[in-house]
Design goal:
With about 240 residues, the chain is an alpha/beta fold. The protein has a single domain (about 5-235), classed as Rossmann fold (3-Layer(aba) Sandwich). The protein has eleven helices and five strands. α5 (about 110-120) packs antiparallel against α11 (about 220-235). It is globular and about 55 Å long. The protein starts with a strand and ends in a 6-residue tail after the last helix.
């Protein structure tokens, strides 16, 4: 059996991670998985997220079993398997050795943008909720065991999605497909059961939207979290893919 190309895109929440998943799923040769460690994350932390009980019921709460699945045959035996991951789902007790067996990419976004979007759906936020500290750790770990993962900044990407996707496909050793730039509206069977709470804009989308400049005013805890994550973002952004 030929091993699939397993692409792990490590993002924080309120990034363009779901739109990116749409792009990859629109390829005829690619299957996708939506946040396969989310059920374990909620079951272990006890956090009260939207659709918490449904997420736990639908997913795999044993991280080892979830990882075994991610390293197994791809859905529908597709040659490319895009796995959408949230770095904050990598709780401290989860071993990381398996991650180097994937082709890893980091998807980052300005923490002020992330926090401003995040608090629209959840009132409380902490630095570990938005994944940037974990992305910095993961980057160092992957560099230490071999290949430095490409880093894609969401703001840069939205200004030139085709150029970034072409560069990423080149790094992965696969052909770029123009199908990645546009997709049909609506839900997907592959969407997590949490999609009704988080994916409203993506479900209406047919492609990547151009970035919109806006004023962001954060205060209190939200501002403190964004500021605490700024050094991680600045460091990773300096290492980002440039096209």
């Amino acid at each position: 059996m030929v091993e699939p190309l397993r692409i792990a895109m490590w993002s924080g929440p309120r990034n363009i991670s779901t739109a990116m998943m749409r792009a990859w799923e629109n390829r005829a040769d690619c299957a996708v998985s939506d946040e396969p460690l989310y059920a374990h994350y909620l079951a272990h932390t006890g956090l009260d997220h939207p659709a918490r009980d449904a997420v736990i019921a639908a997913g795999e709460t044993d991280w080892r079993k979830a990882v075994d699945g991610l390293l197994g045959p791809s859905p529908a035996q597709k040659p490319i398997w895009y796995q959408k991951h949230m770095t904050h789902h990598l709780l401290p007790h989860i071993e990381h050795g398996w991650i180097a067996r994937l082709r890893n990419v980091l998807l980052i976004r300005d923490p002020y943008e992330v926090v401003a979007s995040y608090v629209k759906s959840r009132a409380a936020v902490a630095a570990d909720d938005i994944g940037l500290p974990q992305q910095a750790v993961l980057y160092d770990e992957l560099c230490a065991v071999g290949e430095a993962p490409p880093i894609i900044d969401a703001g840069d990407f939205l200004r030139a999605p085709e150029a970034h996707l072409r560069a990423l496909c080149g790094w992965l050793g696969i052909e770029f497909s123009a199908r990645m730039l546009h997709w049909p509206q609506g839900p997907r069977a592959s969407d997590g059961v949490w999609a009704p709470h988080w994916y409203a804009r993506v479900r209406k989308s047919t492609g990547f939207a151009a970035p919109v400049a806006r004023e962001i005013a954060l205060s209190g805890e939200a501002a403190a979290v964004a500021e605490a994550c700024r050094p991680h973002y600045a460091r990773l952004r300096a290492l980002r893919m440039r096209v």
